[in-house]
Amino acid sequence: KLAHPVPQDYSGLRVVVSAGPTREYLDPVRFISNPSSGKMGFAVAEAARDRGAAVTLVTGPVNLPDPAGMVVERIETALELRDAVLKAAADADVIVMTAAVADYRAAEAKTEKEAKTAGEVSVHLVPNPDILAELGRSKGRRVLVGFAMETHAGIERAAAKAARKNADFILLNYPTREGTAFGGDDNQVTLVRPDGSHDAWPRLSKREVGERLLSAALPLVSSDE
Ligand code: CTP
Ligand code: CA
Question: Among the atoms of ligand 1, which is closest to the Cα of residue 133?
Answer without folding.
Answer: 7
